[in-house]
Design a protein that fits this description.
Keywords: Oxidoreductase. The chain is α+β, with helices and mostly antiparallel strands. About 25% of the residues lie in helices and about 25% in strands.
Amino acid sequence: MSAMSLGIKGKDIKQSSFPLPSLGKTLCGLRHDIYHGRGFATLRGFKVDALSPADITTAYLGLTSYIAEKRGKQNQQGTMMINVVNTSEDIVRANAQVVMIWSVTPSMLTLSSGPVGGSGILASAWTVYNELAKSRPDLIRVLSEPDWPFDTHGRDPPYYKRALLYYEDGKVITNYSRRILCGEPNNGPRTPGIPGLTEAQAEAIDALHAIGRRHELKQSMEKGDIRFINNLAVMHRRDPYEDTTHDHRHLLRLWLHSDSLCWKLPLDLELAWERVFNDHERREEWHFVKYSSTGEQHVVPVWNDLSDPKPPPGPRPIAKCD
């Protein structure tokens, strides 16, 4: 069944319009495990080769609607689905060491895993917290102070401050991207003139990553895999990877949210989530990257919201994530 025959797109794709009598029950079980169990899950075997971009997108949204009912806008342009590919601007970063991050990336569909590298690497944030609390409780206090300077990369104001670590509703919660706090020389250097990390903060963030590495679990990313992560409970990163002219790593990324199952959030994160998942001002944009026989990338629209949108909202600092 094609996307055109279903007659639905974007926000119209949900459980009620995409019935899965058998698989839907399995997905609902995974949903509870993601939010209140292991914190991650992988659905394997999505046959992507024979499908058009519209059909891949429709099926991906239909499947993920059983995990979470909301999808977030991932940038100021209202892009709903990010194509994670290696571009000329990203080559240095793609082949460099990628550190542990917490981010709003609970779902990725692997269209192509590429020839070398790119495995997903996970670590329990609670395991990391427990070890840090036992060995360096002073760093727990540093992580909990609301004075970490987050770079907004060109927005106004140029930075804002909040904590990295919270305790809310009986749960330890942390959410950040190291790039926003530390910058990367070849991909998003830190904005000049904003505060840097203190010596104590630098020590604390390095300790988080060191402990995460001791407890990490490597997960292969095969073509057709759909991975879900509870970003509040699991640290995640990826291995460096390489592309060739005819073999490229290509993932589709959605930001998902379940009102009924998501953990209660601290106010700082709640405001950021509101901006991502309940923004009705920016119109939705859906794009797909295709490769030519020579390896050139071409961006094609899947479908876009063609209604007349309201004027773009003014800049507002949020916890931007990788």
